[in-house]
Fold:
Amino acid sequence: MIDLDRISKAYPTRTGSNLVLDAISFSFPPRTNVGILGKNGSGKSTLLRVLAGTEAPDSGTIRRKGTVSWPIGFSGGFSGSLNGEENCRFVARIYGADVDDVVGFTMEFAELGEYFYMPVKTYSSGMRARLAFALSMAIEFDAYLVDEVTAVGDFNFQAKCRKAFEERSGRSSVIIVSHHIGTVKSYCEHCAVLQKGRLYYFNSVDEAERFYEAA
Amino acid sequence: MQGSLTQLQVVYALLLRETKTRFGVNQLGYLWAIIEPTLWILTFALFYGYYGHMSLPGMNLVAFMTTGIVPFSLFRETAARCMSAIGANTGLLFYPQVRPLDLVLARAILEFVTNLVVCALFLGGVALYEGVFNIESWLETLAGLSLAGGLGATFGLICCGLSVYSTNVDLLLPPLLRPLIWFSAVFHPVESVPNGLRDLLLLNPIVHTIEMVRNGWFPGYHARYVDPWYPITWIVVMLFLGLNLERMARRRMEVV
Structure:
């Protein structure tokens, strides 16, 4: 469960400051998959980073109950000179997970073959994303924060991701941000729309879709 | 309690990671960490052995150079490595539990251990060569080295915080730190410096740490002017400033 209380975040621009999150208060319900729709530049990735704690809001407070993942789907957080396995070891250690379990799971899930033992800088962006996604699945979180899952891998890999999330749907929840309604539909029961710094919440994805398209 | 346990995990993971990226994949990396200070120590020992007119009663020249060069380079290297800790690892700040402070801490520890090994190799080597193991106080030598590392780490932390605001800091500071070696009593005991100059020299906190290392290692070495509280005060003040800067930098930083 994640509670947001009057979260604001602005970025400086040439013409003044751009308020991306405008005093958002919201409680994400536990064990419920929530999609967050937003157009490009609406601040959805910022919201996800704030939820994860990667970025601090300018004002407001966040309370997290249970463990929350880093923003997944983002291939950052890897060091290019280390290989896939070494990067996995590092992440397993900082999350206090069993290193060998994490490495074993990630290797199998990511399907990188020999590349798992090659420096990450030699990866294509698709391979990086696959490694990032597999690694996040290797660690148990109460809430998974996913950024644009549609960008990750081919059709088979996406089916695999969906299955992995379904398997843990009783235990954990997924919060997905996307500009694509299809992604949200296939994962989430509830949906919110981020627009001009405000978050509009809907109990059904269809309602959210109507609102999103109208805007 | 939970928080400090997580932080320990993070620093430990960073330490293993830094060791790998710092020394590279091949074993030659470790060797380089030792070759560089070796060249320094031997060059200066040879130079002062031929041209110097110092009398160092009861002290081996190589051992004496080691006690000056190792704490100094410990300070300088720690400062330089800590300074670039954030810049080189922005990607890691993407994991919420990794703080800039942890990056600095991991680098400082690695630098300290590396220099400790170098110091032990040289001082131990000389003692073996001469066949005399007569040490005044292990503890004081170790304390001197720790304080030198502490000065480097806290100074580096400040620069690291500043470098988030301006990239000039990374470019300007390393060359500015270099000449400091001539004002740190690296090549001569503080005792041998004339009065007026000595007071000036003692304003430099590194001088105190170097003298502590010598005082602990050489029996009969008189470091009358050493005050361990002086570098400690510097460390506390710089730590306070650095931690505040780190806090501000953390808010300002764009994690992409």
In short: The first helix of chain B runs from residue 2 to 23. Chain B has one domain: 2-252. Chain B touches chain A at residues 6, 9-10, 12-14, 16-17, 20-21, 89, 91-98, 250-251, 255-256 (CB under 8 Å).
